[in-house]
Amino acid sequence: MRLGSPFGSMPPVSKNLLIINVIVWLAIQIMPDTTVAKLLDICALHYFTSPDFNVAQLVTYMFVQRDFMHLFFNMFALYMFGLVIEQVLGSKRFLFYYLSCGIGAALIQMGVFAIMISHYSGLLPEGVTVGEIASVNVPQGYMLHTGDYYVDSIWSLINTPIIGASGAVFGILLAFGFMFPKAPIYLYFIMPIQARWLVIGYAVIELLQGMSNNAGDNVAHFAHLGGMVFGLIILLYWKKKGVINNSYY
Q: What is the DSSP letter of 185?
């Protein structure tokens, strides 16, 4: 009997993505708060006009997760679907796809933020500018609580960084539904549903939640959609080029 064979037999990219995400999460749990704050300044995705923004964050934000359940569900989905997709695409293409979906998720979410900030800026009290709001020094994750919805919302959009692998993982889910549309997935391990309907259902839910503008749930819904959109573009291109087809299942 080969000890640890299920993990050892995993394809390399999926295995290493799991390892990196878990190591970073564990490090965050034991680091002092000041060190965690510094890590988030460097690696979390900040709005592109923030002084803390750097281009590398379009990649590094995918590997930073603080909440255990956030980590668990992302890694569980990566394990369930990513292994199959990597075996189909090959490791190099899978890594390109994963990172592209994560970067695409970040770009879509930043674009949505830019649209929202532009809209809110026209509704600000007279004499208040976006630049002034953005420069107010308040601890990360807290709004100003000025009593003015648009002031608080603009500050929150600019100053609250994004973390997590969800955008890339939603791209992986999209790929599974695209390549294995009729594969049964058991919701809560009981009710079977075809992969294509699960993907469509998730996309509709994320769109509705994103459009509801419920900033209080602390979820970047348009990043999830962005990962799916970029994933679909890549998959359609690969299908046109004959790299993949829909006869896997």
A: E
